[in-house]
Amino acid sequence: xxxxxxxxxxxxxxxxxxxxxxxxxxxxxxxxxxxxxxxxxxxxxxxxxxxxxxxxxxxxxxxxxxxxxxxxxxxxxxxxxxxxxxxxxxxxxxxxxxxx
Length: 100
Prior knowledge:
The chain is mainly beta. It is built from no helices and ten strands.
């Protein structure tokens, strides 16, 4: 998942990799699920903190913690586009589907 690109300084870096795990809540609840994941820098092989992860359809966004982890809570069933943003890197879009 990591293509090489040139950053603003012209050095070769790798795009952020996003490991996304969609977990589904218990049946019978109003909430379909949460999106939980970890963002890491492929070129540095370490977690990427302070990265913004946004659900395009809802505008909901969170930042990653010092371990590159993020959690977006309380999403209804459906298909969502995750947008991963970090200055100096190319934006990354991924699709995740939550089922009842």
